[in-house]
Design brief:
- By secondary structure, this protein is of the alpha/beta class.
- The protein has 2 domains: about 210 residues, 3-Layer(aba) Sandwich (Rossmann fold), CATH 3.40.50; about 160 residues, 3-Layer(aba) Sandwich (Rossmann fold).
- It is built from 17 helices and 14 strands.
- The longest helix has 16 residues.
- The radius of gyration is 24 Å and the shape is globular.
- The termini are far apart.
């Protein structure tokens, strides 16, 4: 008997996952699987790269197998919601391994693909449906999918679904689900709005936590370079040239910025690709596959990829631009040091990003190690110059209308 069997999984399922190298459960798996098998609603908190998919996927497969029933047309016995197409695919591929040669059917629906083809795929129903919230609602509106018989619901990376504005979609989906169901919510961080989601979806949940929210993997080394905005590209090239054979993930803030940076790196001799919101699903899949296979050594991405890449060989993560949402920093660097490997997270900070850096350090619980440059001092930290006091009782003279007009004209010219 192995450790997974001690958690309550069947011998057959334990043997199946052992073929893929899953022999010892991670902390989140050890704390979650027994409660899920007992039928409890659960809220699981764990950093990225700790095996959350297996924490809900393995007991889900076992419980669905035990019933022996088949789904009715256009229904899903279990529904897993995830925020990005990349994460949906990652979950789908893991579940296919867990299911093996059993009778269970796993399906996925995401944006960027034909609605007609996905509707046809759901005609016979499925045991497990992995979906992004927006595309699921599209299919429900077309009456191609019914959630009336869904027995199990999983919300994976729920915090990012909130960050990406899916709160209204989640509320809409909640109304379509039966009240009698088992619900599991997994997240790396716990923002305030999460309590509303938990109250809407969960019934007397058990809470398990494998690491404090915001904690990064122990084997990730983190450093920061303070540098002018114009010097970022040159520094990135110099640093990447030192490990040209290692796979590196580079995060940019905008879609256009990511594409421009990818082309710059590619022309400089780095085998680079990109994934972001302006890419079609086919282009994103091809770039990700090439990165996984090592044909691309550098992948430039926006936060759309922060939680959808599970590649143990990613050695370096570069935060070329610091994220606007501080928790996204944790998710970004969670793409390295996976499956027990070592990894390095390297961040760049220009003067305009001081505010973002302070918020990130607050989430991390302390400052990052400085690799080069000197910390920028923001205007708020330096203190604003005091306004002239004037004579006691003197009222400040308002600028004339002509002055305001000239000032407004000057702003337009700038």
């Amino acid at each position: 008997m192995n450790y997974f069997q001690e958690l309550g999984l069947s011998e057959k399922l334990a043997e199946r996952i052992a073929e893929f190298g899953l022999n010892d459960p991670t902390p989140i798996q050890a704390k979650s699987i027994p409660s899920v098998l007992e039928g409890r609603d659960l809220m699981g908190l764990a950093q990225t790269g700790t095996g959350k998919t297996a924490a809900f996927g393995l007991p889900l497969v076992q419980m669905l197998n035990a019933t022996g029933t088949k789904p009715t047309p256009k229904t899903a016995r279990a529904l897993i919601l995830a925020p990005t197409r990349e994460l949906v695919r990652q979950i789908y591929e893991n579940l296919i391994k867990f299911v093996g040669k059993s009778h269970l059917k796993v399906s996925m629906v995401v944006g960027g693909q034909s609605l007609g083809a996905q509707s046809k795929r759901m005609e016979r129903g499925t045991d497990i449906l992995v979906a992004t919230p927006g595309r699921l609602i599209d299919l429900c509106d077309r009456r191609a999918v019914s959630l009336a018989e869904t027995q199990y619901l999983v919300l994976d990376e729920a915090d990012q679904m909130l960050d990406m504005g899916f709160i209204h979609a989640l509320r809409q989906i909640a109304k379509m689900l039966p009240e009698q169901r088992q619900t599991l919510l997994f997240s790396a961080t716990m923002p305030k709005l999460m309590s509303e989601i938990a109250n809407s979806y969960l019934n007397d949940p058990i809470r398990v936590q494998a690491a404090p929210p915001g904690k990064v993997a122990d084997k990730v080394t983190q450093v920061i370079h303070y540098i002018d905005k114009g010097g970022k590209v040159g520094l990135l090239k110099r640093l990447m040239a030192e490990h040209k054979q290692d796979r590196a993930l580079v995060f940019a803030r905008t879609k256009h910025g990511a594409e421009r940076l990818m082309k710059t790196l590619d022309s400089a001799g780095f085998a680079a690709g990109s994934i972001h919101g302006n890419k079609s699903q086919g282009q994103r899949d091809r770039a990700l596959s090439a990165f996984k296979e090592g044909r691309l050594k550098v992948l430039v991405a926006t936060d759309v990829a922060a939680r959808g890449i599970d590649i143990p060989e990613v050695k370096f993560v570069y935060n070329f631009d610091l994220p606007n949402v501080p928790e996204n920093y944790v998710h970004r660097i969670g793409r390295t040091a996976r499956a027990g490997a070592d990894g390095a997270a390297i961040a760049f900070c220009c003067e305009d990003e001081v505010k973002e850096l302070r918020q990130i350090e607050k989430v991390l619980g302390g400052p990052m190690e400085t690799a080069s440059g000197h910390p920028w001092i923001s205007a708020s930290m330096a203190g604003k110059p005091e306004k002239p006091a004037g004579r006691p009782g003197q009222r400040r003279r308002r600028p004339t209308r002509g002055y305001n007009a000239a000032k407004k004209k000057g702003r337009k010219a700038a």
